[in-house]
Amino acid sequence: MTEAKRNQEINQRLANLFESNVHLLEDGAAGVLNAARKPAIEAFRKQGIPDFKTENYKYTNLAKIFANENHRRVFAYEKSDVNLHELFQCDVPELDTNLVMLTNGWYYSGNEQLTDLPKGVVVTSLRKAAVEYPELVEKYYGKMADPEKDPLTALNTAFAQDGVFIYVPRSVVVEKPIQIIDLMRGTENTYATQRNLVIAEENSQVKVIFCDHTLDPQDYLVNNLTEAHVGENAVVDFYNLQNQHNKAVNLTGLYIRQERNSNVLTNTLSLHGGIVRNNLNVLIDGEHAEANLYGLALTDKNQHVDNFTFVEHAHPDCQSNQLFKNVLDDQSSGGFTGRIHVGRGAHGTLAYQRNNNVLLTGTAKMNTKPQLVIDNDDVKCSHGATVGRIDEEALFYLKSRGIAEREARLMLMYAFAHEVLQEVRVEKLGERIDELVNKRLRGEVSKCHSCVMDCES
Length: 457
Known about the structure:
With 457 residues, the protein is of the alpha/beta class. It has helices at 3-26, 31-35, 37-47, 62-67, 84-87, 126-132, 134-140, 151-159, 392-400, 405-421, 427-442, and strands at residues 72-73, 98-103, 106-107, 122-125, 164-168, 178-184, 190-200, 205-214, 220-230, 235-243, 248-258, 263-272, 275-284, 290-299, 304-313, 319-328, 333-342, 349-359, 365-374, 379-388. β2 (98-103) and β3 form a beta hairpin. α3 (37-47) packs antiparallel against α8 (151-159), α6 (126-132) packs across α7 and α10 (405-421) packs antiparallel against α11. Mean pLDDT is 93; it is low at 448-457.
């Protein structure tokens, strides 16, 4: 079968799946979610599932993944027969957060009411919010993530039923981070769609932590998309701790729109997972705003992590910084595509991008493509990428000071990773991630941390 024929069959199968189950998708969902479905599936039909020939997906062949999946879809909430809060132990037990859990893309019915939230702050199911806060959801849902521009966004919008909704009113500071545990579980191979919406109004502050985990050894495929509106003078941090088993495919999208004087930090930490694709899109849509994007991926065996970033500077006197690092062992592979666009009116822009990668074996592979598109002259921009081995001179220096070679290599790898880890602005989270990364580099965590399942294949 030719690739074109294969892709055509995938696209038709997914479109047929939508048409056959649209009544289930629409059942109980608010009009704002349902109105977006059919335009989104038409956008998907036009684009099709991406493969290596698709420029933005050239380092991750999703067509190959979707050709081999026939997973069960979760078209309705499935009540758990156990207390998931008791079954699942968070990787960061000392972390004091406002915690909610989602299972297979649905807001968990066993979540406790969050009593420590400031007045006016809402953390709830997106499905519920679309009914109870229709004006807010209608104002922002689908406004940042355009199905016409990305096929995974189109699929997510067509099949979205639930997720988490976070609303922080103007001038409210949420001191305790909001933590979302995304769990995949079940006795069958499962495909989940999750849609999240975060609204931080002017002068507000909030930190959001997404933790992605698997509880069972089945194959999982997740399409998880978050839209975030960051108002004037707002400060918002997004952390994503990805720690799934080797049979999981995790496709994430984060779309952020920033207004003037806002400050955004994202830090994506891929500690474990079979195939991970992260799409990060930031529109800097107001003067004097700042966006900082960081990422670290540690891979081994046949794992694959691909980060795609697009930062759009649309207004003057803004700044963006991007730093992504990979440490690749065994036969693992990685990709990085970073794109910065400075618009014609975005004078005084400062935009920096760097991607550094260390290959620990001759069979590990990394592809990197930093890009700058500048449409005016009054800017300071730079980008760069490196792919190589551990610094032999530094290694020699440490060995000459009496440090054993294995320990010296670990010290250099940890120092390499620490540049990203130090950009975690939640103290207990940063300390725990330091510990997890240290263990991962030492080979003490060869599967998703604290997992009791034998699913390392």
